[in-house]
Write a structure and sequence with these properties.
Radius of gyration: 35 Å
Order of helices and strands: HHHHHHHHH
Largest sheet: none
Low-confidence stretches: 192-197
Number of strands: 0
Helix content: over 70%
Distance between the termini: 73 Å
Shape: rod-shaped
Length: 197
């Protein structure tokens, strides 16, 4: 017989106070969200100056069904499990986020998440800057190649007008170039050519 089944068997034969003390020892070693909820519900309720009867009344109004104040007592004493709809409604009735009722470390967890997101933001900004500079370099290269092509075309017209057609881009490439370079031409002066802008 395992220790857990032995405790469970003794708990069914034991008086309620013994069951509560065993449960308390188990939750002190490895607390579950329901354990946090019972304690945090009482703390938040008392912090807000709300009685168990008043909390039950508010929850009843929100749920549209009767919630007895004895249910709140049993939930806080951990002799009755809280249902999900009750947990959500209790948080709403007290005007607190549900996470604060199921976590002892909400503030620390929240700060850790903020720090994690700030790191991700910094990495994304660095990547964005790298890509922005890459776009700038590619755009400059296209502009230089287009200028060279234009110069070759002008020279060909002067030297051999029949060969000038060799320096014209095919219509699709020219349309794509015009569209992309039109975006660059429409930018304020210096924006496309200054990577530190």
């Amino acid at each position: 017989m395992t220790l857990a089944s032995s405790i469970s068997r003794r708990a069914t034969l034991a008086p309620p106070s013994f069951v509560i003390s065993i449960r308390k020892r188990q939750t002190d070693m490895n607390p579950l969200p329901g354990d946090y909820f019972a304690r945090r519900l009482r703390q938040e309720r008392e912090r807000c100056g709300v009685s168990q009867r008043e909390l039950a009344r508010r929850m009843s109004a929100l749920l549209g069904s009767n919630v007895e104040s004895t249910a709140i007592t049993r939930i806080e004493q951990q002799t009755r499990a809280v249902r999900l709809d009750e947990a959500v409604t209790a948080a709403e009735a007290l005007g607190v986020p549900l996470i604060t009722l199921v976590s002892d470390n909400y503030a620390r967890e929240n700060e850790a998440q903020i720090q994690k997101q700030l790191v991700e933001l910094a990495v994304a900004e660095q990547e964005w800057e790298r890509l922005r500079q890459k776009i700038h370099r590619i755009t400059q290269t296209i502009q230089e190649l287009s200028a060279e092509r234009g110069a070759f075309h002008s020279h060909a017209l002067d030297v051999n007008p029949e060969a000038a057609g060799d320096y014209e881009l095919d219509p699709e490439t020219q349309a794509a170039l015009d569209a992309r370079m039109g975006d660059v031409r429409d930018q304020p002066a210096g924006e496309a050519t200054n990577p530190d802008a």
